[in-house]
Specification:
The chain is 72% helix and 0% strand. The protein has 12 helices and no strands. It binds zinc ion (ZN) (2 copies). One zinc ion binds next to helix 4.
């Protein structure tokens, strides 16, 4: 039996290490799925493929944390809006946000190397696969199918359960270490997204040069439009919130003025004291 102290999380104490091991062992089908997906897409260089899969998993975790930092909120009102509202506007904006931000590494690499990969041609397809994978889990599994309450609890407390669950377990942002997520619901998303990325990976290089150039052109245009839409809506939400703040302030001042210049009638005051 573990003592009470050893059942409490502290960074890298025996309880924490035990929970990291438990998270890997109970979700081993998910990790087998990840390795199979990595083999399908990155068989030309498995070591780089594994590094890329670990990088993309961490990227989604840290970008989500960044979206909740006070300094970053002004450039990411859309994610806060997604937390505060459940309308379609919030839903679709969040999908655009996820797809655009998660494929940003492809465009950063392009800026520096003038091509979409650093070492191997599969790199942009892995990043694209992860962007679909992450967005589908968030918007379908959690938001529509409500597979569990792990992500819903993140909406209630913005400091925990950023996801993926293994990152929360390792880096100490897990809401409750006694409730590890069963991530087998990732598997259908992983299979479908890997198939889509693999088909594109094998089809696009066989197209003519001009067809490939057209795809790059349309992709770049879509990315630019997506980023512009996000910027516009972000500004819109920011100024909308400022307007709400201003109207709240005006309403409060109005209430105070009414209280000062129209005090409650003596009968009301008396009855209030008499209660
Ligand atoms: Zn969030
Ligand atoms: Zn959410």
């Amino acid at each position: 039996m573990l003592s009470n102290k050893s059942r409490t999380y502290e960074w890298l104490n025996s309880y924490h290490i035990g929970k990291i091991k438990e998270a890997f062992s109970t979700n081993f089908p998910t990790y087998i799925g990840m390795i199979v997906s990595c083999t399908i897409l990155c068989y030309e260089n498995m070591l780089l493929g594994i590094i890329l899969y670990i990088f993309c998993t961490h990227l989604s975790y840290y970008v989500h944390i960044l979206a909740h930092q006070d300094n970053a909120k002004t450039i990411n009102c859309i994610h806060e809006y997604h937390h505060n509202y459940v309308d379609n506007y919030a839903h679709y904006l969040q999908i655009v946000l996820e797809l655009v931000t998660s494929i940003t590494p492809i465009f950063i690499v392009y800026l520096f190397t003038n091509r979409f990969y650093v070492k191997n041609r599969f790199e942009p397809y892995v990043i694209f696969m992860f962007s679909l994978f992450y967005s589908s889990i968030h918007n379908i599994n959690y938001s529509m199918l409500h597979v569990n309450t792990i992500h819903e609890n993140h909406h209630k407390n913005w400091c925990v359960n950023y996801g993926p669950d293994i990152c929360d377990v390792i880096y100490g942002t897990k809401e409750d270490y006694e409730i590890l997520e069963d991530t087998s619901h990732y598997l259908p998303n992983l299979i479908i997204c890997t198939i889509i990325a693999s088909v594109l990976y094998h089809t696009i290089p066989r197209l003519t040069d001009s067809a490939q150039m057209s795809i790059i052109k349309y992709m770049t245009q879509t990315y630019t439009y997506g980023a512009m839409i996000l910027l516009m809506f972000n500004i819109n939400i920011m100024f909308g919130e400022l307007d709400t703040d201003k109207s709240d302030f005006a309403q409060n001042m109005d209430d105070i003025n009414k209280k000062i210049y129209n005090p409650p009638s003596p009968s009301l005051t008396r009855s209030w004291y008499e209660v």
